[in-house]
Design a protein that fits this description.
There is one protein chain. This protein is α/β, with parallel strands linked by helices. It is built from 13 helices and 15 strands. Helix 7 links the parallel strand 8 and strand 9.
Length: 367
């Protein structure tokens, strides 16, 4: 199979879908790999390394997309990439379709077959292709949250770790999945006063145990979320429902009631966000102040550390990419339950239930 790896064009996105080692594995299986010139530079991976691994370097995006039967990407198609989608193309990337009706419609119109990294799901319910990026985003969330709290950024001027004789800042984490747990570990590690909320008592017990009790675990319900948020210096939203829009746990009224200059880092923004006041931002313009709260809502947070993120991503995506390339779409769907769950759109139809629930009118369309 011919596999194409274009350069990411989303704002400040420096990751690339595969490392040279991943290319070598695909070539060893008899596939041809076409990499757009400069695709890996942001991750410290030059063209010569891809050529040494057996890839052909394409001059531009048009050539790269045209060469591929299977296109491997990091983020959802944007701008001119949408016009390059076609019925005979298989796209494997993070899609987050439930957060964008426009992108869903355009993908349906193109007839492309779209597999989403974030909906590859194992039988135990885990999301192996989302896990490493969730871990990275969770760890970064405390770092960027501390930056948001700096006075020059509109924040309260609170140091999360506190100081001798001064209380530490209060961090509230909504969701105890991989991102939330990773954020919790970092926040506890720097000495913040940390509360984490989730609807699953087993997850809360796990977080409590791994941190030796140095965290307050709280069952997530409307009253508890509001109470914790109103007392927080930093709120981190990390709630995920696979393939679906994130629930709006923080109303505008609650955000308005938060401490003036508090910070909200919404990791869930790529699925619509956990606050009514959240809207997507980019790395080059990451924050805005609304209702007196500094919001950080960058949709591709792991893109801040592309070298680490690219290697972590390839570690988990390569096996599934090999299945798609070796077996073809139909063969891979028959052989792999996780890939069946990852299929979002095909031949002009929505085939993932969570996306269909997000856009019922589009789900009723005929191909």
């Amino acid at each position: 199979m011919d596999i194409a790896v274009p350069k990411e064009i989303k704002a400040e996105e420096k990751r690339v879908a595969i490392t040279p080692a991943g290319v070598a594995a695909l070539v060893a299986h008899g596939h041809r790999v076409f990499v757009e010139r400069g695709a890996g530079e942001g991750s410290g991976l030059g063209d010569t390394r891809y050529e040494a691994a057996g890839a052909a370097i394409c001059a531009d995006a048009d050539e790269t997309w045209a060469r591929g039967q299977l296109v491997l990407k990091v983020k959802e198609p944007v701008g001119p990439e949408i016009g390059r989608l076609r019925p005979d193309l298989v796209l494997f990337t993070y899609l987050h379709l439930a957060a964008s009706e426009e992108l869903t419609r355009r993908m349906l119109d193109s007839g492309v077959t779209g597999f989403a990294y974030e909906t590859v799901q194992l039988d135990d319910g885990s999301l192996p292709l989302l896990a490493p990026m969730s871990e990275v985003a969770g760890r970064l969330s405390v770092q960027v949250g501390a930056w948001c709290l700096q006075h020059q950024n509109g924040g309260r001027g609170v140091l999360l770790s506190g100081a001798s004789g001064v209380r530490p800042g209060k961090v509230v984490i909504l969701g105890a999945g991989i991102a939330g747990t990773s954020a919790c570990q970092v926040a506890v590690g720097i000495g913040a006063d940390v509360s984490i909320l989730d609807v699953n008592p087993t997850r809360l017990r796990y977080v409590h145990d791994i941190l030796g009790g140095h965290v307050t675990t709280v069952m997530s319900n409307r009253a508890n979320v509001e109470e914790e948020a109103l007392e927080a210096d930093l709120v981190i939203g990390s709630v995920l429902i696979p393939g679906a829009r994130a629930p709006k746990l923080l109303s505008r009224q609650v955000v308005a009631g938060m401490r003036k200059g508090a910070a909200l880092v919404d990791i869930s923004i790529d699925q619509g966000g956990t606050a009514e006041t959240s809207r997507p931002t980019t790395h080059d313009d990451p924050i805005y102040v609304e209702e007196g709260v500094v919001h950080y809502c960058v949709t591709n947070m792991p893109g801040m550390v592309p070298h680490t993120s690219t290697h972590a991503l390839t570690n988990v995506t390569l096996g599934y990419a090999l299945q798609l390339a070796d077996l073809g779409t139909d063969g891979a769907l028959e052989a792999s339950a996780p890939l069946r769950r990852a299929l979002n759109v095909r031949a002009g139809r929505i085939v993932h239930s969570a996306v269909a629930e997000a856009f019922p009118a589009l789900a009723l369309r005929k191909s």
